[in-house]
Amino acid sequence: MDFRDVKNIEYMNQGDYACPGCGAGLSMRHALKVLGEKTIIVMPASCWSIIAGVFPTTALQVPLMHVPFATAAAVASGVKNAYKKKGQDDVNVVCWAGDGGTFDIGLQALSGAAERKEDIIYVCYDNEAYMNTGIQRSSATPPGAWTTTTPTGNPLIYEKKDMFNIVASHNPAYVATATIAYPDDFYLKFEKAKNAKGFRFIHILSACPPGWRIDSKDSVKAMRLAVESGMFVLMEKEQGKPIRITYKPERFIPVREYLLLQGRYRHLDKNTINEIQIRVNERLKDLDLS
Amino acid sequence: MESVEYQSVISDKDIRRFPISITTTEINLTGSWRFSKPVFKEKVSPCSVGCPANTNIPKYIFYLLKNDMDKAVEILRRENPFPATCGRVCPHFCQAKCNRKDYDGAVEIKQIERFVGDYALNVPPQKAKVMSNKSIAVVGGGPAGLSCAYFLAVNGYKVDLFEKENFLGGLLVYGIPEYRLPRSVVKREIENILSVGNIEVHLGNEINIDTLEELKSNYDAVFVGVGLSKDREVENIKVDNRGVFSGYELLKRLNTDLEFGKRFSGERIGVIGAGNVAMDVARTLIRLGNDVEIIYRRTLREAPSFEDEKNEALEEGVEIKEKRVVEDLQYDTEGRLLLKLRGVDRIENGKAVLNKIKEDCVVDKLILATGQVRAFDIDEDDKVFLGGDFLHGARTVIEAIASGKQAAFRIMAKFEGRDFSYMDKDDCFFRAERDFDEYKVVPFERINLHYFEKQEPLKIDKLPKEERVNNFREVALKPSLEKILGEAKRCFSCGVCNECKTCWFFCPDMCIGVHDGVEFDYSFCKGCGVCSEECPRGVIDMVEDK
User: Fold this and answer.
1) What is the pLDDT of residues B523-534, one digit of tens each?
2) Which CATH number does B25-42+498-544 carry?
3) Which CATH architecture has domain B135-229+388-415?
C-alpha cells in the first residue's frame, strides 16, 4: 500500500487518552477514515470509553454513544432502526467494543443482533484481556498469557474463543479478521463492510503495550508477528461464500518469535511454547494454510 | 491537519436530558506524558559511502521517482559533474555496498545513474553565485582536472585550465573506447562544465616541472592532475613502433584517429598485460578485424581490469594465455615477431618465478600494456595540490573525479584559512554539501524488511556479440524508462527520507506531518516510538526527552 494515497482527513481529535503506542486508537483512526463522517459509534465499556476523553470533551468528530457493557449491539440495532424510520439509511452505525464487551459480556446482544440480521457494523478490537480495568483475563486471552488474574499464565486447558466462527455461524452479511499492521487488508475489509448490507462483523487484533508487556514502539510489530506466526489469521467470509484467507505469509515464522517479544509470555517454558505451536499448526492445517 | 468541522447539532433541551461532550480533547496536551521523543535524522546510506565521490544516491533516486528530474540532476551533480560518463564506465563501488545485496540483489545504480546522467546532458549546471578574486591554475584536462575546475568555478573562483592535447577529456576521450563511452557524451558533459563560466581553457599547453614553477608564482594555487603518461618499462622488450607498440599511445591514436586504425587489420596481435588499457586495446583491435591474444603473467581472474571488461572481451573472441611471460623476441624475415614464451610458476615480490614450460608464438604485432607511471615527480606544498591518477596511481574515473573535487575543497579551505577535514575520517567521507543530519551509516538490520517485497534486480541488455565485433556501437543498451523506474523503486533509500509516509500512517496520535522531511507535533506526541520502529529506512531516532 502506498501511504501517500491515503486521504489526509482525520475524524479523530488529538489529545485522546490512549496509552502511548495503543493499537486501538490507531485502528479507530483508520477505520473512521474508511467509514467517513456519516458514522455513529456505539460503545460499551472498554478502553475506548476512556480514550474518547472525559466529559465534556470527545476525541471523535463523529457522534459517539457510551452504552452499558452488555448492550452495544442492542443499542446499535435501535439506533439504526431509528435512522431508518427518519429516512437516513446511509448512516453507518458501528459498535466499537473491546474483547470483554464482545467475547464475554456483550455476546448475547451481539448474537441477537446477528440473528435478527440488523444492519450494523460490529467491530471488536481485541487486545486479549480487560486492559482498561487492570489487565484481567477475558475469554479472548490466549492460553499461556499472563494477566493479573492469571499470574502464572492463562491455563492451557482454555482456548481463545473462536469469535470469527461464532459470528460466521449466524450467517451474517460479512465477517472478517483484520489488523492495522496490514493496512491494505484493513482498508479493504472496512471498505467491504461499509458497502455490504446487513450484519457485519470485524474482529481486529489490537496490541496493548502495557497489557502485553511490550515496549510501546513494538506495538505494530507485535500485531504483525501475530499474523506472520499464524497466531492470528487474516480471513473473511461473505454471505454464501466459503471462508477466504486474505493474507498468507511466504513462510510462517515460529510462534516463539511472537511470544518472546512480549512480557506476558516471558515465563513460558519450552514445552508450553511447543504446545502452543502444535495448536497453531493444527489450526493452520484446518484452514489449509500449512 | 485537515479535519471536518465539529457539527454542533445538539439543542439545549437535549443537554438538559443527558450529558453530552461537545468540546475536543485537544485541551489535553498529551505531549506532557512523553519521556522520549522522535527526531528526524537523515543519515548516510552505505552506497554513498562506497562511492568515492560520496554521491547522495537515495536522494536523487527519490527525485527521479517523484518525476522531478531537474532536482535529481542537481543532487547528482552536486557531487559529480560527470553523471552520464560514470553511468557508463564507473565500476559502481556503491552497488557492492548496497544493503539490498544480501536480500535479493543490489540495486542497479549504474543504470539509474546513466538514465539521470543522460537527462543531465541537456541541463546546464547552475552558475556561480559569489565571485572571488583568487585564481587557480589547473594542470591536466582529464576527469580529475575538470572536476577540480568545476568545483572551483561553481564556488566562484577563476580557473585557468592547461591541457597538453588539443582537446579536453584526457583518458575519457583517448583512453576509453567509443563502444564503452560515446564521444558525444563526454563532449556534452565537458561543455556543461565549461558553461559554468570562470574557466579559461588553454589547449596544447604542456606543463613540465620547470613551467610549473612559473605557474606557482602567477597563481594563488596550482592543481596538478596530469595522470600517468609514461609507459612502465619492461625488461627485454622495447617499443620500436615497427612491430612493438605502447598500448597507451596506441589506444590514444586509435581512439582519436580513425584513419590510423586502418593500419591494423587482419593481423595477429599479441597484447602483454591484462589491465583495463590492455582490455580496451584488445577489444578495439578485435573490432578492427584482428585476432588478438593477451599474454599475462597471472591468471585472468587476478587481473586488475573490470569483470565486465574481462567477460565481454572473452565473448568477443579475445584469446588469453595465462601465466606466461615473453622471454625473448625476434623479427623473422617477413617482419613478423617470433615470441619465446615461458611459463610462470608464481609471482614473488613483483617478479615472475619461471617454470620449465616453453612455448613459441608468432604474431604480427606486439602491444605493451603493462601500465603507466608518472612522467615527473612533485609533492604537495602550500600552493601545489595533486589529484587523480597522478596522485594515487592508476584507478577509476570516479576516483579521479572524487580526488579532483576534494582537491578543490582543500584549495578553498586553504584560501579561507581553515583545515580541510573529511566528514568522516575512517570512511574518508566527503560531500560538497552536508545534506544529512548525522554521520551514521544505516546497516541492513535497521531496514524494516516488511515493507519490501523481494524482486529480482534489473537485467541489463547488451548488444549481441555478433553485432558488436565489427563496429564501435555502445555495448550496454539503454533500458526503458519503465524498467529504470521499476529498479529505482527497489531502492531501500537507507537513511534518506523518501516521504513514504509510513510514520504518518502508523502514528496513533496524529502528530506527524510529512512535507520535505518529517515534522512532529510535540504538544501531542506521546513518544511511543512506533514511527521510529516502523520507518522502513531508519530516518527517525528516539532520544531522551527531559
Assistant:
1) 999 999 999 999
2) 3.30.70.20
3) 3-Layer(bba) Sandwich (3.50)
What DSSP assignment string belongs to chain A? --GGGS---BSB-S---PPTT-HHHHHHHHHHHHH-SSEEEEE-SSHHHHHT-STTEESBSS-EEE--GGGHHHHHHHHHHHHHHTT-TTPEEEEEEEHIIIIITTHHHHHHHHHTT-S-EEEEEE-SSBTTTT-B--TTSPTT--BTTBTT---TT-----HHHHHHTT--SEEEEE-TTSHHHHHHHHHHHHHS-S-EEEEEE---HHHHT--GGGHHHHHHHHHHTTSS--EEEETTS--EE----SSPPPHHHHHTTSGGGTT--HHHHHHHHHHHHHHHHHTT--
CATH code assigned to B46-123+436-489: 1.10.1060
Q: Tell me whether residues A15 and B505 touch, CB distance under 8 A.
A: no
Chain A's closest residue to B5, CA to CA, is A61
Tens of pLDDT, residue by residue over B88-121, are: 999 999 999 999 998 999 999 999 999 999 999 9
What is B231-373's CATH topology? FAD/NAD(P)-binding domain (3.50.50)
Q: What is the pLDDT of residue B370?
A: 87
Chain B residues inside the 8 Å CB shell of A52: 21, 25
Chain A CB contacts of B3 below 8 Å:
9-11, 13, 61
Nearest CA in chain B to A61: B6
**Could you give the domains of chain A?**
3-286 (3.40.50.970)
Using the beta-carbon criterion (under 8 Å), do B4 and A53 form an inter-chain contact? no
Residue A180 to chain B, least CA–CA distance (Å):
9
Question: Inter-chain contact A3–B509, Cβ cutoff 8 Å?
Answer: no
Mean pLDDT highest for which of B102-111, B261-270, B350-359? Answer: B102-111
Residue from A16, A43, A223, A247 to probe the interface with B (highest B Cβ count within 10 Å): A16
The complex's ipTM? 0.96
